[in-house]
Amino acid sequence: MHLQHLHIDPDRFPNRDHYPFNLPVFTHTRHLALTQGVTFFVGDNGAGKSTLLKALAHRSRIHIWRDEETLRCERNPFAETLYRFLTLEWRNGPVPGSYFDSELSRNFAQYLEEWASADPDILDYFGGHSLLTQSHGQSLLSFFNSRYRFKGLHLLDEPETALSPSSQLALLKIIQRQAAAGHAQFVIASHSPILLACPGAKIYSFDRVPVASIDYEATEHYRVYRDFLSNRTKYLEEMTDE
User: Fold this and answer.
1) How many other CB atoms sit within 10 Å of the CB of residue 52?
2) In the chain, what are the domains?
3) Cβ of 44: how many Cβ atoms within 10 Å?
4) Which residue, among 25, 18, 21, 22, has the nearest Cα to 49 in the 3D structure?
């Protein structure tokens, strides 16, 4: 794998009062091994998995396609500074990579549209069609199919958000195939029990302090879906009674 280990140094945190430095997962987690082709970050909303994924992108010098920052009534000056306290161990030096989340994908699609107005051939790289003329799910699969053919470290934040179950299976096939080829490495924050089922993947739970690896069948995502599908009538009756 390209990236072997990720180290967090909480002793150098500027404070323990502001997010993300006030999260126990960061103050008590010092090391994550990333020795598999696919690594998942799982946990409840606000657990810190997306924050660490974005910090990993910054530390790896992976560009994040974004529009201009929106104004906020309260600004946290520490919100995106976690990367300064990460140390990465590479197998043979840093590699190029990509960062994806569904919120920012529209920005990339718009940039691509502007580039294609000057050079239409660039769309051949994405299946020959504008991403903006496809459904959101179709455009994402076009992006995934093209981008993950290449060597690098690929970071994905909840890619299942706009994907149907069948499209999630298609993405799982892409991830599994490219990771097995040995040139692409994936780190993914996800709530999808379909994606989490990727054979050979390592799963880290951010609901544990410090962050710890967990078996697929022990994840809340697997257990909740399994129990609901096995006892759907019971669950719906209980919801009605409340």
Assistant:
1) 27
2) 3-106+151-241 (3.40.50)
3) 12
4) 25
- What are the tokens at 181? 């080829």
Place of tokens 């600004």: 75
Residue 62, Cβ neighbours under 10 Å: how many? 19
The C-alpha atoms of residue 204 and residue 80 are separated, in whole angstroms, by: 21
Nearest in space to 146 (alpha carbons), one of 211, 100, 88, 87: 100
Per-residue pLDDT of the chain (242 residues; tens, 9 = 90+): 799 999 999 999 998 888 999 999 999 999 999 999 999 999 998 899 999 999 999 999 998 876 555 545 466 677 789 999 999 999 999 999 999 887 766 656 665 566 566 566 656 555 555 555 555 556 677 778 877 888 899 999 999 987 889 999 999 999 999 999 888 999 999 999 999 999 999 999 999 999 999 999 999 999 999 998 998 888 787 777 65
pTM equals 0.85
